Amino acid sequence: MKNRITEEQLDYLKEMMNIGAGNAAGALSQLLNHNIEVTIPDLYLVPVNEVVGKIVDDPSKLVVCVPMDFSGDVTGKIFFIMPEKDAETFTDLLFLMAPPGVEQTDKVDMEAIAEIGNIVTGVYLDAIESFSKLSISHSVPLVSFDMAQALLDESLIIAKGDQDEILVVINTFYTKIGEFTIFLLIVPRFEIIDILCDSISMASPGHD
Amino acid sequence: MTERVYRVAMGKGMVGSASDWDVITSSGIGSCIALVIYDPINMTGGLAHIMLPAFTGSSYKLHPYAYADSAVKVFITRLTGIGSDKKSLVAKAAGGANMFTNNHPGTQTVGEQNVLSVKLILEKYKIPLIGADLGGKKGRSVELKLIDGGLFVSTIEGEIKEI
User: Fold this and answer.
1) Over its length of 208 residues, how does chain A's per-residue pLDDT go in tens digits?
2) Do B100 and A147 touch (CB under 8 A)?
3) What are the sequence ranges of the domains in chain B?
4) CB-CB: which of B29, B100, B137 is closest to A67?
5) Chain B nearest CA to A114, separation (Å)
6) Which architecture characterizes domain B5-162 according to CATH?
7) Cα nearest neighbour of A146 on chain B
8) Contact between residue A38 and residue A198 where contact means Cβ atoms under 8 Å apart
9) Which of A178, B62, B78, B151 could in theory staple to B92 by disulfide, Cβ–Cβ 3.0 to 4.6 A?
10) Where are the alpha helices (DSSP H) in chain B?
11) pTM for the full model?
């Protein structure tokens, strides 16, 4: 791989994602009017072939997937993913907090998850932006509920042409009715990790 | 007797006879294509989980089974190697879905390119495509029965069809 990331750079990324996770929990708490706790996110650089295995134990397991394009100083694709069980917990939570008269119709509310994906992704990108001083925006989310590998294969194929590793952020949120885990896949185009890390290094103490 | 099942991962493939395996299966097929080439006389066949329409470039970055054109070539070599007559080979294919709304109308999705490429290559090698379940918006899983070449395609809606 041409742009292998150093331990130091990975630490910066972790710090950014940590801020992102805290802000995401805050945004979700406010939105759902319910206290939501979050752990420090796990962050991995995963070879393209192993990405699906990082999310589910079987490639045909179901997930809700919200893909978005991001653009600006760096471009690429970002996926907000919730495995079926987590999506169900999240949907339960959503309807627990719903005003009276609003009935839960589906075990997994895709539209709501698309919107949450949109908001949470925005929060993470904000954290990256403010940390790295890069300008990044993201597109309107799409959503689909299907087999994990089927949803991701196209993007992984495209990513395979550009680089060998994808950034996977795993975050677990704790609520009073249970926990749910989200996965953020960041599939950058070309030299994004370099650009990102350069600008982080520039912004980090020692370069001030 | 337990069924002898071989699972093909994305970008890989397997060729065998009914005496080696009962079933060759692959799951989580979105824009990829599960291509089966089968020889009904010898009860031999194979399944490839194809990712890309064609092999371009000078060296294989992925397995030859990952590209439609090289996969067909490997199938022919392997199957004739274990006694098949090229003339008796038939093909079946499933996949080539577009999992999300096409953001760029007027352009071909990876799924559509894969479908087109598989059809052209089969035509080039004169292998008839006798069963197909292509396109759409849903992911698929497939099971090839080596005893008769039956290809069972399932989606998350629970319907299973044989092609």
Assistant:
1) 445 667 777 788 888 888 889 999 998 898 888 889 998 899 988 888 889 999 999 989 999 999 998 888 888 889 999 999 999 999 998 888 777 777 778 888 999 899 999 999 999 888 888 877 888 888 888 899 999 999 988 877 766 555 577 889 999 999 988 999 999 998 876 555 566 666 656 655 554 4
2) no
3) 5-162
4) B100
5) 13
6) 2-Layer Sandwich (3.30)
7) B139
8) no
9) B151
10) 68-81, 110-124
11) 0.84
